[in-house]
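Retro notes (design track)

What went well: tokenization of the new backbones is finally stable.
What didn't: we kept losing track of which sequence belonged to which structure.
Fix going forward: every design gets posted as structure first, then sequence, in one message. First example under the new rule, 161 residues:
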């Protein structure tokens, strides 16, 4: 079984590219803290390369930036290539099946950060609004976690099941 779960922060803004068949692919590096301290009492981190495909890649590019915290579910992949000197090089990276947005670098100190999930599954994402709402704080392109100024209350009596 090849399954990886990581929680960390982006070390740089995601890079979005398109394959020859116009398939979106995003790459970024994730800093993941280790569970223990070194001999000096400092916590160290591992820096792990992440690859995300299709609509999820576009969501990552549009809504995440350096410092954003995410949870990654995916698989480990190792690939090889020959460099300019003919040397064989190995690259190990995580191919993300699911990226959960845990918060931005600005919300890292707030306990009530909003969780949003983007997956490779077909269908609309939480950001497919079509048209912009006409209320305060509607700049979804710059802040997908914006407060739109009104709350919705749902009781169990209103659920169909």
């Amino acid at each position: 079984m090849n399954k990886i779960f990581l929680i960390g922060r982006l070390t740089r803004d995601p890079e979005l590219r398109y394959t020859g068949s116009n398939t979106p692919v995003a790459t970024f590096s994730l800093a993941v803290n280790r569970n223990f301290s070194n001999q000096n009492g400092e916590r160290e981190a591992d820096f792990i390369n992440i690859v995300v495909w299709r609509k999820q890649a576009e969501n990552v590019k549009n809504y995440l930036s350096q410092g954003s915290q995410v949870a990654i579910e995916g698989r480990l992949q190792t690939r090889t290539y020959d460099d300019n000197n003919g040397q064989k090089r190995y690259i190990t990276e995580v191919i993300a099946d699911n990226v959960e947005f845990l918060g931005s670098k600005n919300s890292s100190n707030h306990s009530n950060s909003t969780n949003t999930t983007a997956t490779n599954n077909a269908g609309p994402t939480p950001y497919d609004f079509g048209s912009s709402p006409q209320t305060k704080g509607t700049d979804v392109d710059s802040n997908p976690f914006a407060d739109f100024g009104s709350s919705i209350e749902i009781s169990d009596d209103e659920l169909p099941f």
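Added context from the reviewer: The chain has one helix and seven strands.
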